Amino acid sequence: MVDIFLFRHAHVDYEPPAQVTAHNPLTPLGCQMAARLAQRCDEWDLQYLFVSTMLRAHQTAEAISERFPDLPRLDMAEFEELSIDDLEGYPGRMPPEDLRRWNDAHFDYAGRRSWGRVKAGWERALRVVEERSLERVAILSHEGPLNTMLRLFMGEDAHRPPSWRCAFGWTATSCLRYAPEDSWVQRSIRWVNDIRHIDDLRQFLAPARTRDTD
């Protein structure tokens, strides 16, 4: 059996006047959360780590790499969140880089491109799992790509408006299990959105007032 653990990155400040771009760093609180996520990884004896190349994901992953210096890691642009790069070829007027200033047409166009990008990354990660005969790997990414991965795991093969969306908490963990030698019917979702490791830190979070875009 193969377990794929899905991690969301740690806390980022998206409150105005901060912009929402590919360059937002972790807050001091986010750094504490990243350390907690790294400690949580003690439970799973991970064999491989796939990481989005965006700054906030990279900084979260550094806490894991520091705790497990021998853990193989692959940084993957395919697992990045939506950004201005996903609007390449957009036929209309280009928006600013700040996602908070995009409109629905921008998100729809970028979302379709993101689906193909994340799907390619997902398939690439699965090939690594198969080639190396791995059993416990983690993917550290963002809310949008993590939702795409859940949908791909459940058998969706094309982009379409989602009938549901999981609002992943900061450093949330989820776990997907499958048997490589069997069909997709043998797949199961063990858990989704577990953030017990930061329960005592959540009191320091301000209520979200902006559109969740990462």
Describe how the helices and strands are arranged.
Layout (H helix, E strand, L loop, with lengths): L1 E7 L19 H13 L7 E5 L2 H13 L5 E4 L27 H29 L3 E6 L1 H11 L19 E6 L9 E7 L20
Parallel strand pairs: 1-4, 2-3, 2-4
Antiparallel strand pairs: 1-5, 5-6
Helix pairs in contact: 1-2, 3-4
Portion of residues within helices:
25-40%
**CA(first)-CA(last) distance:** 30 Å
Shape: globular
Beta-strand residue fraction: 15-25%
Overall structural domain count: 1
Q: Could you name the CATH homologous superfamily? A: Phosphoglycerate mutase-like
| CATH hierarchy class name | Alpha Beta
Rg measurement, Å = 17 Å
Overall residue-averaged pLDDT value: 93
Give the helix tally: 4
Reading the helices and strands in chain order gives EHEHEHEHEE
CATH architecture: 3-Layer(aba) Sandwich
Fold-level CATH name? Rossmann fold
- Low-confidence residue ranges: 209-213
Major beta sheet, strand line-up = 3-2-4-1-5-6
Q: Based on DSSP secondary structure assignment, what is the total number of beta strands?
A: 6
Task: Return the structural class.
Answer: alpha/beta
Largest sheet: 6 strands, mixed
